[in-house]
Design goal:
The chain is 65% helix and 7% strand. By secondary structure, it is mainly α. The longest helix is centred in the last third of the chain and has 56 residues. The strands form 3 sheets. Strands 1-2-3 form a 3-stranded antiparallel β-sheet. Strands 5-4-6 form a 3-stranded antiparallel β-sheet. It contains 23 helices and 8 strands. Helix 5 runs antiparallel to helix 6. A hairpin with a 2-residue loop joins strand 1 and strand 2. Bound molecules: 1,2,3,4,5,6-hexahydroxy-cyclohexane. It is a multi-pass membrane protein. H(+)-myo-inositol cotransporter. Can also transport related stereoisomers. This is Proton myo-inositol cotransporter. It catalyses: myo-inositol(out) + H(+)(out) = myo-inositol(in) + H(+)(in). Its main location: membrane.
Length: 645
């Protein structure tokens, strides 16, 4: 599609550099003319235009005046309030996915949960989120963003209450599914709502704040897990129930917050849309923005044409098909880079380094979530400075390298794995595979076995490979590691890991991983998805991408232990690293820069063949701003654009 906002956008070849220019249509000139008088910045702009007509040498003055107009556009505080209340959905996303690991430690003891029930309570939420994210696309189109956010916070509230009052595991499962439904809807709606309400120059930053809230939720969850782990009875009720507070806060807030103006215009509620636009743009002139949204909706309706469900129209119309591929691909590679495995596995990595106290391990695991949070903050700072494409590319290179470092750490640890020195006889005379292992590595990779060892300050003394207790992986089925009273005199039970003196290498890999992943690969898939689809396809596109995110989340977490069993830990991390490399090639080839463009302009970026973006790297950083002065179009040159920023 080439006709946007009532004006024609053309690609021209200008000295070998591609750029977009637009030639004004008569309609836009007249509408501009009509609105110029009411514009707060209309006077300087008109004066500048007059100067331009008398002397070509005064183009500099003209551009300066135009830039001034941009700089006068102070963002009203209301947009920030709106972003923060929406991002509470991100906070709940992080909190509800993060809190379960600590709660599970208490739950499995108190309710005597089998491995299957533990798995069910963890995965049911993610599975429900995957399905409800897909359904959320339909709900968003039908009822709007605001109603969907209200619905999500309602589900979070009810889910939290059910979880904290659950009399048994069946009700717990119901509560986790209810929370999952809220998660799916919130994860696809919040980024769209923030993107549609933000001014272009702040959009990336404000949508990225949502991911900052996700990681903030994960960090808070680890603190709450740490604090309530001392409350052995019912501690989990507080951990799971506390999410009700932010959920109620968000629900109350959204009773007063407005609907997205873009959705309102699409629904023909034009007066309401104008009111909302004036509210979120403060004292700025909204005529141009309003016209541009309205025109683009009309154009989109013509261009996207055809009948049938939105997903069908998206797949048969090349620009949206490409955008959908890029959006879903980004979400898929985010999860295939193993973020949730790394986060989940951090406690074990700490145990490998010699932290044996459960509570200390829980507190220290909080360091992982804190690092994730702090580096996402860096992403918020960088997104409007370096742009989405460079940030994502840099991040995935670092992610790929750090995954290799983690793999090398596990490889060296495996090569120096301690031997099994003692083969005790099973008191029940059952034939267990555990007794066959001669080394710790194959013993710990077998989910039925664990490594029981004693050590003094400098060396490992006796060690054996024994079956794990079926009711709790914290003890062996029999022998000196079978209960805490027997485990005196520096005797330890290692399940899922081996003691190693190379854990520092793994720890280094872990920190490097989070520092690389969190600013780019963590937030950018959400941010980019919120802006690459035209309005008619936005909810469906985001629903599909969020569905892909949750589906790969569950796939990666469920397969990790099996992967490790068949390919060892280093094999699994080398695999994630190769997938991240594949992700780099995909992003390099297919992801265009969307920084500072209006949502209505972005569709044009997907008109070219997919995977031709790498070739246009020279255009990166070229930020072209279009300023209309009395019917003429001027663009600020590269250097000037940075001033506007
Ligand atoms: O963007 C988020 C964030 O990076 C989280 O830390 C992670 O747990 C989620 O799966 C991901 O979608």
């Amino acid at each position: 599609m080439s006709n946007l906002m009532g004006e024609r956008w053309k690609k021209v070849n200008d000295g070998g550099e591609r750029s977009l220019i637009k030639a004004p249509s008569s309609a836009s000139i007249s509408s501009q003319g009509a609105s110029a008088g009411s514009s707060t910045a209309g006077a300087p702009a008109a004066a500048a235009a007059a100067a331009a007509s008398t002397s070509s040498t005064s183009t500099g003055d003209l551009e300066r005046a135009a830039r001034k107009q941009f700089q006068q556009d102070v963002t009203p505080g209301f947009v920030y309030v709106l972003a923060v209340f929406s991002a509470l959905g991100g906070f709940l996303f992080g909190y509800d996915t993060g809190v379960i690991s600590g709660a599970m430690l208490l739950l499995k003891r108190e309710l005597e949960l089998s491995a299957l029930w533990q798995e069910l309570l963890i995965s049911s939420t993610v599975a429900a989120a995957a399905l409800s994210a897909l359904l959320g696309g339909f709900l968003n189109g039908l009822f709007g963003r605001r109603v969907c956010i209200l619905l999500a916070s309602f589900f979070f509230t009810v889910g939290g209450i059910v979880l904290s009052a659950a009399p048994g595991k069946e009700v717990l499962l119901a509560g986790r599914i209810i929370v999952g439904v809220g998660l799916g809807i919130a994860s696809m709606t919040v980024p769209v709502y923030i993107a549609e309400a933000s001014p272009p120059h702040l959009r990336g930053q404000l949508v990225t704040v949502n991911t900052l809230f996700i990681t903030g939720g994960q960090f808070t969850a680890s603190l709450i897990d740490g604090a309530f782990s001392y409350l052995q009875r019912d501690g989990w009720r507080y951990m799971l129930g506390l999410s009700v507070l932010p959920a109620v806060l968000q629900f109350m807030g959204f009773l007063f917050l407005p609907e997205s103006p873009r959705w309102l215009i699409q629904r023909g509620l034009t007066q309401k849309a104008r009111r909302v636009l004036s509210q979120i743009r403060g004292n700025q002139n909204i005529d141009e923005e309003y016209d541009s949204i309205k025109n683009s909706i009309e154009e989109e309706e013509k261009d996207s044409g055809g009948d049938g469900p939105v997903i069908w129209r998206m797949l048969t119309y090349p620009p949206t098909r490409r955008a959908l591929l890029v959006g879903c691909g980004l979400q898929m590679f985010q999860q295939l880079s193993g973020i949730n495995t790394v986060m989940y596995y951090s406690a074990t990595i700490l145990q490998m380094s010699g932290v044996r106290d459960d509570r200390l391990a829980i507190w220290l695991a909080g360091l992982t979530t804190l690092t994730n949070f702090l580096f996402t903050l860096l992403g918020v700072w960088l997104v409007e400075r370096v742009g989405r494409r460079k940030l994502t590319l840099g991040s995935i290179i670092g992610t790929c390298l750090s995954l290799s470092l983690l793999a090398v750490g596990f490889l060296i640890s495996a090569q120096h794995t301690p031997p099994v020195t003692f083969h005790p006889l099973d008191p029940a005379m059952a034939n267990s595979t555990c007794s066959k292992y001669q080394l710790c590595e194959p013993c710990m990779l077998d989910p039925g076995c664990g490594f029981c060892y004693s050590e003094n300050s400098s060396a490992l003394l006796t060690s054996s490979c024994v079956p794990v207790n079926k009711a709790s992986t914290e003890h062996a089925a029999w022998g000196r590691c079978s209960n805490s009273t027997l485990m005196r005199d520096h005797t330890y039970w290692a399940y899922n890991y081996c003691p190693t003196s190379y854990s520092w290498l793994v720890l280094l890999g872990l920190m490097f991983y989070l520092a690389a992943f969190a600013p780019g690969m963590g937030p950018m898939p959400w941010t980019i998805n919120s802006e690459i689809y035209p309005l008619w396809a936005r909810s469906t596109g985001n629903a599909c991408a969020a569905g892909v995110n949750w589906t790969f989340n569950i796939l990666v977490s469920l397969t990790f232990l099996h992967l490790a069993q068949y390919f060892t830990y280093y094999g699994a991390f080398f695999l994630y690293s190769s997938l991240a490399l594949l992700g780099f090639v995909f992003i390099y080839g297919c992801l265009p820069e969307t920084k500072a463009r209006r949502l209505e302009e972005i569709e044009a970026l997907f008109e070219n063949q997919l995977c031709s973006c790498g070739a246009s790297d020279s255009d990166e950083g070229r930020q072209v701003e279009y300023i209309r002065v009395k019917g003429s179009n001027y663009h600020l040159s590269d250097n000037d654009a940075s001033d506007v920023d």
